[in-house]
Design a protein that fits this description.
With about 220 residues, this protein is an all-alpha fold. It has one domain. It has 10 helices and no strands. Helix 1 packs antiparallel against helix 7, helix 3 packs across helix 6 and helix 3 packs antiparallel against helix 8. The chain is elongated and about 70 Å long.
Length: about 220
C-alpha cells in the first residue's frame, strides 16, 4: 500500500510542475476573458477531460510505442529528461507559455479553445507526454498503473479547479506572483528532469551487455 501511495505522489511531483495550472490560468483568462463564467467553466471542464484522455492514451500505449520504435527505457528517460529540462529553463526565465502571441490572437477568435491551446500544448504538451510514457515504462504491474492514473486524475482535477477560479487566483497573485510561482515550479521540474538523466545513466552503467559492447568498440578504435 505504501509503494502504491508513493507512485501516486511521484506522479504528482513529476506532472504537476510541468502542467503548471496557474500559468495556464493566465493564458485561459487572456483568451476567454470576454466570455461568461458558465462558458469559461465549460471550456475548463472540456480542457481537463481532453488533457486526461491524452495522458491516459500515452500511458496505455507508451510501452507499445517504445517497442515499435525500438526505444530503450534509458533512451526514453534521457529524451524525456532533456525535454523536461528545456521546459524547466523556459519557466525559470518566466517564459511560461508555449503559445505564441499570434496563436493567442487566433485562439481568441475560436469558439472552442478547450483542446487547443488549453489541453494541448498547455496542460498535456510534449513534456507531460514524455513524463507519462516514462512512468509507463517504469512499471509493468496493473496496480501500479492504477496509481499513475489516480495521480494523473488529481493533476487534471487541480488544473480544472485552477482554471475555474482563474480570475480570483490572478487577482490574488498578480503577474509577479504568477511568475514567482512559475519559477518555483520550474526549479522542481528541473530537478525532475535531472533525476531522469541520473536514472538513465545508472541503468546504462549497470547494463552488462551495453558496457561490453562499449569496451569492444573502444578497443577496436584504439
Amino acid at each position: 500500500m505504501i509503494d502504491w501511495i508513493n507512485i501516486v505522489l511521484a506522479t504528482l511531483v513529476a506532472l504537476l510542475p510541468i502542467t503548471n495550472p496557474v500559468s495556464t490560468a493566465a493564458l485561459f483568462l487572456s483568451i476567454t476573458g470576454q466570455r461568461t463564467k458558465k462558458e469559461r467553466r465549460d471550456q475548463a471542464f472540456k480542457a481537463a477531460v481532453y488533457a486526461f484522455a491524452i495522458l491516459i492514451a500515452f500511458l496505455i500505449t507508451g510501452t507499445l510505442i517504445m517497442e515499435f520504435f525500438g526505444i530503450s527505457i534509458p533512451g526514453l528517460r534521457i529524451a524525456g529528461g532533456v525535454m523536461v529540462i528545456k521546459v524547466a529553463f523556459s519557466m525559470l526565465k518566466a517564459d511560461t507559455q508555449e503559445v505564441e502571441p499570434d496563436e493567442k490572437v487566433e485562439a481568441r477568435q475560436k469558439e472552442d479553445v478547450s483542446f487547443t491551446p488549453l489541453a494541448m500544448p498547455s496542460l498535456s504538451g510534449p513534456g507531460a507526454i514524455a513524463v507519462t510514457i516514462g512512468l509507463a515504462a517504469s512499471t509493468d504491474k496493473y496496480i501500479d498503473f492504477s496509481a499513475i492514473i489516480l495521480g494523473i486524475f488529481i493533476v487534471v482535477l487541480a488544473a480544472y479547479l485552477t482554471l475555474t477560479a482563474a480570475d480570483k487566483i490572478l487577482k490574488v497573485l498578480g503577474t509577479m506572483g504568477i511568475n514567482a510561482l512559475s519559477k518555483i515550479m520550474g526549479f522542481l521540474l528541473l530537478a525532475v528532469g535531472i533525476q531522469f538523466l541520473i536514472n538513465a545513466t545508472k541503468a546504462i552503467i549497470v547494463d552488462a551487455e551495453f558496457m561490453s559492447q562499449l569496451l569492444e568498440t573502444i578497443q577496436s578504435v584504439s
